[in-house]
Amino acid sequence: MDKVLLDYGSGGRASHRFVQDLFFKHLGNDILARMDDAAVLHLNGPVAMSTDSFVVDPIFFPGGDIGSLAVHGTVNDVAMMGARPLYLTCGFILEEGLPLADLERVVASMGQAARDAGVRIVAGDTKVVQRGAADKIFINTTGVGEIVVDPAPGGNRARIGDAVLVSGSMGDHGLAILSTREGLSFAAPVVSDSAALWGLVEKVLAAAGDVHVLRDPTRGGLGTTLNEIAGQSAVGIELVQADIPIDPAVAGGCAVLGLDPLYLANEGKCICIVPGDKALATLEVLRADPLGRDAAVIGRVVAEHPGKVAMVTPLGGRRLLGMLEGEQLPRIC
Amino acid sequence: MDKVLLDYGSGGRASHRFVQDLFFKHLGNDILARMDDAAVLHLNGPVAMSTDSFVVDPIFFPGGDIGSLAVHGTVNDVAMMGARPLYLTCGFILEEGLPLADLERVVASMGQAARDAGVRIVAGDTKVVQRGAADKIFINTTGVGEIVVDPAPGGNRARIGDAVLVSGSMGDHGLAILSTREGLSFAAPVVSDSAALWGLVEKVLAAAGDVHVLRDPTRGGLGTTLNEIAGQSAVGIELVQADIPIDPAVAGGCAVLGLDPLYLANEGKCICIVPGDKALATLEVLRADPLGRDAAVIGRVVAEHPGKVAMVTPLGGRRLLGMLEGEQLPRIC
Questions:
Q1: Do A36 and A125 share a domain, yes or no?
Q2: ipTM score of the complex?
Q3: Residue B80 belongs to what domain range?
Q4: Contact A323/B12, CB-based, under 8 Å?
Q5: At B169, which CATH number?
Q6: Residue among A54, A125, A155 minimizing CB distance to B36
Q7: What digits encode the pLDDT tens for the residues A272-294?
Q8: In terms of C-beta density within 10 A (0-12 exposed, 13-18 middle, 19 or more buried), how is residue B108 classed?
Q9: Do B191 and B115 belong together in one domain?
Q10: DSSP state of B23
Q11: Dihedral over Cα of A174, A179, A185, A191: its sign
Q12: Given an 8 Å threshold on Cβ–Cβ distance, is B129 in contact with A55?
């Protein structure tokens, strides 16, 4: 029995055995083990809740897989609200015929990523659809965490004079997925940055005092995310292109393929917008952490062109950086 | 533009327009409108959290659609913990080419079901996969609610002497899906029972005092769910087959198709296990509610055969009712 069968999703005896064998082995904890219709949680104070479905293709890629990505993506969205991620639920949609070895590799990776991120998987659901009705495996994760700062960061809290930082290089995840999918190889390997950011965020919250905005530039990349923030806060954002960290391998790959790394997804990076006088302290704690060693101050919040993002180019020109138009890369996460 | 396009899932400008036009129109509220990476919620006391992915085929069926079902399924799982459902997240996986009119009908139905159930949809996510990589639309919903009773009902709390009730007829949802999918029609119409149960549950909690177990017999049906409870509580359960309510149209359809309604999914029914001396009071409040008008006491919790479910047949024999074996009906929810 080496493939996922349709009756593993039936809710009957086969699903029970399947779930107990595989999911409990890798994801089990005392809350999940109760096997009730819902998990019982104890949460203090205001709570952040976020959901994401993952359909990344391929399901295994340099730097991660759909399982670890499904943990990182959602715990990071929770962390961006200044909240310590605590609990995750996971919903699997499996294609009949998926090799069980692939599924187990994904589930084991989820379990490891959850332990590393300090979160517990407290409820789950598995559906199996017939061959051809889904592509291998889709995973939804929904996370909750306790907000530990007041006021919490918010996309509408960027203020004129704030500094804009990123915690590292842009575009790694997007290019890693594309190059794997298309069988491309570059001079230097391109690896996804998929990682859980709460540890880094916690240090930033302590160093910067009041962090105005935290956001992870996933789908749509840095360009789209900054446009969202400029719109929500009704401010302008001005970037210095030369200060935006881009890994040379990613820059090279993007040049060859005609892609802009500022619109490629990141899965282990955050944008931090902090009061201008806290920029250097924030940069220092970011760079002291392995996940933030390439952090940089990339721009500032301005009164001009509210709702828009402008960029000073290396040649001294200025251009507007709009939202992503069309689809650069489907199924990137 | 009358079909879902791949770039609606890009995270860029097209997704933003699409999300704002369609999802906010039907699901919008002040929390969702903040458009941050996570919703900020205020919850008191212990919280129940549950997740479910919906892959039902067809997406429209007599008595509901995948949108209302995705709300009912998850709010019911939360309610079964004695918790008032408050907030839902939803994650959509859409197939490129899905008619926008179908999507809007589903989303509008979700919005209506959420309003009727008194819950708000506070966070969402949309992914679009290429044609053939998913079948029309899959929806994950994850819900949280505040547990209002102490101790909360739990699958491990059935006690010898307890009465076992169901809130209505068994098998309606499963047979409605199957007959729609296969284009079958019976003498009388078979309609899904998909409904939100919190209102009914709240009355049961008040009438029965300490409700030991609440469970909705969805996938796997009554037979499987009672086996789960017998196992979790290490007790036997004894049913009287003649007392289990089955709609005549469902009984007739099942007889024709060789299906057992006790293993068919329900989406608007609950099992209530209460102290024996509270059985009649519980039955009375169930029957006074339109969703519980066919409620019945169907059996009791016994010391014999712990972990197993036995049933007295109309002819006076006894047989064990095991868990569902194999898959009666894929993609029933």
A1: yes
A2: 0.95
A3: 6-147
A4: yes
A5: 3.90.650.10
A6: A155
A7: 999 999 999 999 999 999 999 99
A8: middle
A9: no
A10: I
A11: positive
A12: yes
